[in-house]
Amino acid sequence: MTVLTTTVINNAEIKEKIYYIWDDMVKGFALKVIPNGQKKYIIKYRTAMGGRSGVQRWYIFGDIQNLSCKEAREEAAKLFRMIHEGKDPQAEKASLREADTLTEFWELYVKDYASLKENKENYLKHTEPLWRLYIKPVLGNRKITDINNLDIEHLHRSLARVKYNANRTLSLLNLLFNLMEKWNLRPPHTNPCRCVQRYKEDLRIRYLSSEEMVRFTKELRDAETRKPEMVYTVAAIRLLLLTAARKNEILTCKWEWVDFDNHLINLPTSKTGKKTIFLNSKAVEILKELYQRPERELSEYIIKGRNFQGHNIDFKTAWHTIMKNANIKNFRVHDLRHTAASIAITNGHSEAAIAQMLGHKSTAMVKHYAHLASKPVFDVANTLSEVINF
Fold this sequence. Notes:
By secondary structure, this protein is an alpha+beta fold.
């Protein structure tokens, strides 16, 4: 028998996935333990006075910061009494939400949706610019009940020059209007985004050729020799290629997350939530060299910023110089991930393993490299062509 107590709550282990500790004193009452460290109180119930014909709901009503275990159990019991009287706490919470204009709804969205996500900082970092640059100037002051399909269509067409951002904006609007319906702020089945056709995007996958790789690695060595202060920028670039990590994951990485014994970096958060970066021997060697530098303790970050304080924010100027000197065109920092993936798949590694290295939840993105998997076979065929002389 499990009874939620303060001790049980405090000792609840943070795991890679969400899990629940159910209380046997009040059936349907539980502690929700989230990978980002948050612990929230929830109840699971059915509408229609708790009958089997009712819709099942999950309702978060507090967290361990604002409710003690005893208070939470009492609140759960009170909520269940309301449910047996025919009330629906989740629906009543939704009915309390009020928003007239889209700007007012955006504030609700940030408070009641985006801020509750596990990786809320990264999530808002990607959605807020879409709102600020594209949606708010056109639709911000419009009443949410007045926005129609034509409004969304016009906005989407106005962004035709930037197809990627146009589609991301449409996806965000689709989510916003779905939430409006869910929260009873618009009638059901009135989402104005439903019939808007997305633009076809040309997927750009660029990676270094073997000749470019030779020039690239040589330029990194030369850059470090010419400017010793480039040590951290060059180290960051090398780590990006060796680990296939995202730029921000390396630039904001702290020493405390590095596990030298197991050759891992355990990121508490990333674009996709908690993530493990796998370190090969060369990556470990680079990290150990940086760890032994005298200025290591001046900042908790691996890739130091100016005057060894904080972390490096960006290295656009240095990257441009490296690309120019190495005579490499149309190659972005993010393409280092593509290069790492292409090398891995060319050498026969599985899509699943490569997806895990990249931090993708599925192999869908890796399939774009599928044509490279046959390269070793073509190498064999070309060898036969060279050796056999008819």
